[in-house]
Amino acid sequence: MRAGDGSATDLSRRALAIEVSPTVAMAQRAAALKARGADVLDFSVGEPDQPTPKHVCAAAVAAIGNGRTRYTSSAGLPELRAAVAMRYEEDFGVGFSDSEVAITAGGKQALYLACQALLDRGDEVLIPSPHWPTFSEAVRLAGARPVLVEAREKDGFKVTARMIGKAATPRTKAVILNSPSNPTGAVIAPEDLLAIGSMARRRKFTLLYDDTYARLGFGSSAGLRLQALRDAVGERFVVLGTASKSYCMTGWRIGWILGPKPLVDACAALVSHSTQCPTTFAQVGAVEALTGPQQLVRDLAVEYRRRRDFIHPAVAAIPGITCVEPGGGFYLFPNVSRYLRGTVSTSLDLAGRLLDEERVAVVAGEGFGAPGYVRISFARAMEELQEGAKRIAAFFSRREKR
Rounded to an integer, what distance in angstroms lies between the CA atom of residue 185 and that of residue 393? Predict the structure, then answer.
């Protein structure tokens, strides 16, 4: 369907330009095979395999029983806004007031709202790449232009201040940083974050800091205290966060924006004309997650490091494959370009063949702005990872002999 072809169902150019999430597309294909009885190992979706903690579920169920099923403020429950501010003070040493927090329907909506509130046509947004595809799509939906800044495998996919400084222009309205990164697991060094923060103040661009995986880092040091970064950036510092990964609450759709009050108020106004508010009892559950015991989060980081320490060397040992060791999160991003030839000339082709021949689902690097790579989620049980490693090795062994 083309815009303006006379049909009663003409779609807007905006809708026609949207690309379907490659992660969702592969997960749907894997699910269809599973529904037909196939033994599929799905390493495509970035979703914890652990259930939501029982005390969080109990809080939400109690909220329903107590009649907490009505609208909330578009900025979210006051107690949840306070809980988010408290959690960031305790975990990252940064102080935001409750009025500088807005609750959203997941991290994706937090990103979408921030882009809608900040960007105009003609603005440019720098996005280090390989990158989560929703970053660039959210920028385009706001009418602005995403500018991809290449992070190189030989440098461990690290984002540096030098990279950002070289790419920035007078049209740069914002920079999106994601640490640890989806899809590479790369962590931005504290000194580079501070340098980028100082650059944001000088050049007057907004720093959108997506910390979805920040609590799932594998480093031994505490790293940067975010107050130092906020002090460096000033009023152009915005944090985009979510309960999804750290608290195993992906389907609850609770995220947040922390930033200057005018931006937070603008985002809440946008919510008031779209979703009205995140689900009330899900917000109550999130209060419990943020204010209750935090051992789960620490245990998750330990568990994902254990899984990384198995799957990374297993994949990196496959002849012809190189793979940067992730510093956080739960993704591997191996380079499979050596195996792209003949009828399998792209990583899209290769991911399709891997699913067809070995029943292993991964996401092709094209979706992350990085052809020649695939993303493997290791947020799966160790038994699945062990079996998956065998199937992946067998697949590439056959291709090596061709």
Answer: 22
